[in-house]
Amino acid sequence: MQFATYLHCNVPRVRCEKHDVKSIRVPWAEKNSRFTLLFEAFAIRVLNAAHSVEEARKLLGLNWHQVDAIKARAVKRGLARRQATKIDYLGIDEKQFRSGHDSVSNLYDLTGGRVLDIVEGRTENDCKQLIEQALKPEQRAQVTAVALDMWQ
Questions:
Q1: 3-class DSSP assignment, residue 2
Q2: What's the CA gap between 113 and 92, in Å, rounded?
Q3: Taking the complete model, does pTM exceed 0.70, yes or no?
Q4: Phi/psi of residue 47, each to 5°?
Q5: Which of 42, 59, 81 finishes a domain?
Q6: Which of 25, 59, 81 finishes a domain?
Q7: Domain extent for 145
Q8: Taking the chain (152 residues) in consecutive chunks of 10 residues, what is each chunk's mean pLDDT?
Q9: Who's near 128: CB < 8 A, 6+ residues apart?
Q10: Cα distance between residue 104 and residue 95, in whole Å
Q11: Are residues 95 and 77 in the same domain?
């Protein structure tokens, strides 16, 4: 019913000669997160449905840093689950930000409708770096076509 729920738990800690004191992992949250995995999944659904991060932030009752940390953990979990599947069609595009002074290059799986990776810059070397860090050699060999909309 989406009531605010607070979990108070004394997480067991272990003293290790090599690593000093460590807390055990709890099944309901990631390390250094103040939110449960269930709430973070809900927050990502709200972010996807909202028109802006600011709108989602207000609906969730969180500050900007909390939303940013939730997004970063979700991306990390998604990348850890991503498998090296065949990608037939790639899209590469540049986007400007910060009043058009800086650019990033984006690599897309056009069939799957997903962003594969992003790098800063818009040069040929940036484009090569993007492909090399996002795709394994066997994936690169299986690409059928690339739609490219880049500077020079």
A1: coil
A2: 13
A3: no
A4: -60, -40
A5: 81
A6: 81
A7: 89-149
A8: 75 85 84 87 95 94 95 89 87 81 87 88 87 89 87 67
A9: none
A10: 5
A11: no
